[in-house]
Amino acid sequence: MQILLLWLLSVACAVNILIRRSDPTSAHILFIFFLLCRCIFFPGVLMVADVVVLIMIYSAATQARIALAVLVILSAVGALAFLWVQHLPRHSWHDIIFFIALLGLIGTTTLAGFARRSQVAQARKFDVTQHLLQQETEENQRGAVVRERTRIARDLHDIVAHTLGVVIAQADGGRYAGRKDPDKALVALDTIADMSRAALTDIRSIVGVLREPADEEELLSPQPVTQDIDSLVARVQKSGFDIAFVQIGPIQTLPAGIGNVLYRICQESVTNAMKHGGPNVAIVIKLEWHETDVTLSVIDNGRGASVANDGKGNGILGMTERAALFGGTLEARARPGGGFIVRATIPYDGNPHERRA
After folding, report:
1. Does residue 282 contact residue 299 with C-beta atoms inside 8 Å?
2. What angle do CA 150, 154, 157 make, to 5 degrees?
3. Residues 75, 84: Cα–Cα separation, whole Å
């Protein structure tokens, strides 16, 4: 009967190893139960299946929650101490060396597991940081395209407005002059033709930029807004960074433009905190809903460094321009106790500033 129970316990331990990746929490809890059975039913037997202990310790140190990992390690050490007392009542030098060697194996396995855990966490942080930086770069590129097209639109507006103004004035003058002085009417028509040709040439010289094929589906896709801050926080948390998001006050429905500006300011501030705040930076995002405006604060306890402008319209200057676009303000400064804070306030009725001709 005892042999059958020994085989069942060995098979159960082997199966437990197989499920440790798909369900690590259950696997490590079952491992503690198997250790208890091992100590109760086979206190005086050294089993080949005992090698499972090292595998599960390494697995717990790399995969399980910290509290569960510590519990698994302490259970293994406790089981070893129990077996030492039960199985080796007379402690010779060989026994002591054997016991120390087992403790060394457990300690080495634990250190290796936690080292691997730290390596994986750092890799995840790096991947998320790279992803955010890539998003930031893509956003900068899209912003550069939008700014260039805005410049082209202003140029087209100036050219067309100026030309049409001259054409209308010449047409009105030519109409009246034609009744008394046909030669002046012809001069007016020549002026209209010359101005129109010049305008057509200018328009052709700058409109080519707009002929580049664009991803229409991407341009028409909805832009992220304040509701998407939760997703941003979840991605950063998954990478191992300490980040929290709180909202204060009754949540309001924002226009898409204001929501997108707040999201972009939040994204850029979080990215800067991750880049410049150090590996142990803690970030807090606060969204405060007031009666007439909304305030976004991104606070970190890092080194307090930030980039005012990276040469691409990014950084504090870019965030300030985004907030000002909807009548808002932005404050960015180092905190007295260490760290950095970015705070943007935008009124609910903020309208984009219109350019006048």
Report:
1. no
2. 135
3. 14
* Sole residue written with tokens 């039960």: 86
- Read off the pTM: 0.51
- Report DSSP letters for 267-296, one per residue: HHHHHHHHHHS-TT-EEEEEEEE-SSEEEE
What is the chain's mean pLDDT, rounded?
77
pLDDT at residue 232, rounded to an integer: 85
CB count, 10 Å around CB of 316? 19
For the chain, give the number of residues. Answer: 357
User: Other C-beta atoms within 10 Å of 273: how many?
Assistant: 30
State the pLDDT at residue 333: 92
Euclidean distance between CA atoms 184 and 178, whole angstroms? 7
DSSP, collapsed to helix, strand or coil, labels residue 341 as strand
Q: Which residue has the tokens 């094929």?
A: 213
**CB 155: neighbour CB atoms within 10 A?**
15
Task: Provide the b/e sequence for 30-61 (b: ≥16 CB within 10 Å).
Answer: bbbebbeebbeebeeeeeebbebbbebbbbbb
Q: How many CA atoms lie within 13 A of 274 on its CB side?
A: 27
